[in-house]
Every structure is written in structure tokens, then in C-alpha cells.
Amino acid sequence: MALRCDLIIRDATVFDGSGGPRFKADIGVTGDRIAAVGDLAAASADREVIATGRAVAPGFIDAHTHDDRAVLCGPECMLCKMSQGVTTVVVGNCGISLSPVRMKTRPVPPIDLLGDESWFAYDSFGEYAARLARDPSPVNTYALIGHMSLRVEAMAGDTQRAATDREAAHMQKRLAEALAQGASGFSTGLYYPPNMMAPTEEVIAVAEALRAAGGVYVSHMRNEADDVLLSIEETLKIGRAVDAPVVISHHKCSMPENFGRSVETLPLIERGAAGQKVDFDIYPYAAGSTVLIPSRLRPDVPVQVTWSIPHPEMAGRMLPDIAKEWGLSDKEAAEKLLPAGAIFFQMHEDDVRRIMAHRLAMIGSDGLPHDSYPHPRLWGTFPRVLGHYARDLGLFSMEDAVRKMTGHTAAVFGLVDRGVVRAGAYADLVLFDPATVRDASTYSAPTTPAEGIVETWINGQSAYVYGQGATAARAGRLVTRNRA
Length: 484
Ligand code: ZN
Ligand code: CU
Known about the structure:
Oligomer: single chain
Strand content: 15-25%
Structural class: alpha/beta
Mean pLDDT: 97
Bound molecules: zinc ion, copper (II) ion
């Protein structure tokens, strides 16, 4: 009997996620899985999509997000990602996760990137996962537990210091519980006050929970500027100490005096990779974005405000313009804006390209979904890598670009049957036009959806259609690290 599918995408150019050469095929989907890849001329389906001239890839895996809260609030909240072809998000990065901690007062930066205290309502990762199961997101969620969230709870808010041995042991226990309840790893943000008060030994003590659970260690390192090499060594040491694979977050060489130093950092990471598992993520822009920290402002790093609680009207404007209008110094103006966030133009394009092109690089947006005037990476990261960097600049092949967003990422995070187009894999798919795909979000129009992403399917359900937006589908699941 002829094969009957729910969906057949016909005559597509397939990028299968492995980095291997593109090929022409039909793709059949039944339920939440890919039923067949090949010549399906004899098969039929409830819905057939003619993809002549267009490409199909595995749905993109956003290796670095702060979508812990966005995945809880329905399809509209994930439009920024689904419109880029993203089907899975890694939440809980940079030491910040929505669980396991309850808060009664406004969280201190940078944990307030996720929202005010009302959002920190999950005593355990299990409760967070239960909420996600009750009220599913359209995208798949892979969760890390943040060091800062553990610290706030274990140290009863008194976090401007190293944790005691007892507190570290408590954090280790809480992390182990979360890993048993479906979290897949542990993240730190040692760059940020107050987390920078945590010595390496504290991190190792907490991360010890990863060993038995087979979890991954992910770090926004203590220093991405002058001491970036020392920080890479610290990160590798922590991974070795607890026998965990390491992911260096948004790898960069920050500040003008460090421009060009990726020629030092990449060989150091490669030497590490010879003896342990280590990879890194990167977003395709020469500017970063995070909370505004007035003491760290520099005259040679331009700053654009992304949000401010007391002065929401200043979102989108350059800090020196605001300072001038107020008759204040930049630092004084920044203090008046707090709590606030900003974009920092602190990297060199040569480093961005060198790091992105490296075989260990995964693409992660680091988008901040609750900012009123977000960094354009929130809406543009994946199409920008495909269009601008792969097609237009030829920095790498489109096959390799797709691998950095799918197959490689799935391997690093231990996702089985995702990040690949083949029979039997989950039907997380994106249909795009390789000739026109491009990011349309910019620093002056940050929430413009990408061009050329035609449709996104998640677990077999159509989740986004270009020109129509998000569908009502909420087929996303909590996905976990395979420990085999
Ligand atoms: Zn970070
Ligand atoms: Cu981040």
C-alpha cells in the first residue's frame, strides 16, 4: 500500500544538519516524526507543500536564550524565534533561571532580565516543568539551572560574598533535584556582580551535581576582556573537576584593547578540546546586550539603552544623548536610568567572524525577549548567519551554517532525534528560501521579522507561517539531555 502521510514537503533542497552537501528530496511527516525522506512520488498526504527552489533544514536550536519566561506565555511570545526557524530554545543561561527560587522583592540585576519578582514563583524545577506541561509553548525547551538563582535561595539573598560550604552543599542538592526533574545542566554568570564573588571552588562544589546526572556546564565567563584566557582556563578546570562537558557562552574578545585576541582564545579552547568536551556559542553581531552597570561604562564603548524602569521613554536612545539632555555625565545618567539594560558596542567584527567560523561554534541568539527596545539579535540571529554570513559574505557554506544551528548543537546538548532531517527524527523543520533569507531587524528597527523564512514546524505541527505569524499550535515539549 502506498505511504500516506499527514504532510509531504515536495522537491525541497535538504540541508540535513550534518554539514554534508545539500540534496533534493521529498519529506513525509506523520504525527510528530519524519516518516520518510527521498522520492515520495508514490505517497500522498493530507497537506502537500511544493518546495521547488526552497530549502528544508532541521528546525534551528537556539543554543543560548533567556526565554525561561517567554516559553510560558504562548505563541505570540515566541514569534521572535519561530519567525527565524527556531524550534528549540536552551533556557537558563548566564547563571539566571526562573527556578528553583521564589522571590518577594524585585530581583537584583542581572536576574531581573527575566522579569520582576512575580515571575519567580517556582520552588523547584519540577513545578516549572509542570507549568510548562500544563500550558505548553509552541517551541521545545531545554533547561539549565542558573547559579545565581541557586545562590539567592541558598544564601537567603545575602549574595555579596562567597557561599559557605554548607550553602554550596545546599545548592548542589538543589541542582541535583532539578536535574532529576528534567533540567539538563548548570549555568554560571561569573562576570556579574554579585556572582563574581563566587570563587572557582564554590562553582565546582555546586557543579559536582552534574557528575552523577551527566549534565552540561555552561558559563558566561568571569572575564571576556583582558583576562579572557584565564577565564577560559577556569571554565575548563570546572568542567574537568566534575567530569562535565563545557559550553563557553557567547564567546567574544571584549573591549578595544582585546580586539583580535580570538587568535589566542581559539587555540586555547582547541587545546582544551583535545582532552575534554568543550564547545561555545556565539551571536552574529559585534555588540552585546545586558543590564546597565554604570561603574563599567567606558568612553570608547558606545551604549544604546534597551529598557529602563524609571525612564521607559529612553529605550532605544544612545546614552550620551540622554546625558546631554539631562545635563549629566554618562555615568550619572546611567545611574538615573537604573534598573536598566543596554547594548554595548564592544567587539570587533574580525573576532566575531573568526569565532563564528570555528568548527566548535554553535549559534545562540542571547536575545532578551522582555526588553522594550531589544538588541536586534532577538529577531535576527539565525537568518543573519544564513543570509549575511554564509550566502553574502561566504564566511562558510550554508551547509555548515545549518550544522552550527542544528546537528552540532544537538550533539553538544545531547538531544537525540533532533537537529537532523532523516526518517525517524522529530519533525522539527524549517522551510526557507536560500536566495532571499535575511535578517531584517536592526539597531534602529529591532523587532522586524526576518525575510525568507517561509514556515516552521515543531513536532510535526505548523507553528509559524510567513505573512500570517504564529499559529495556535503549542506542540513544544520539555526536551532533556540524553545521558547514554
Ligand atoms: Zn551572558
Ligand atoms: Cu546570556
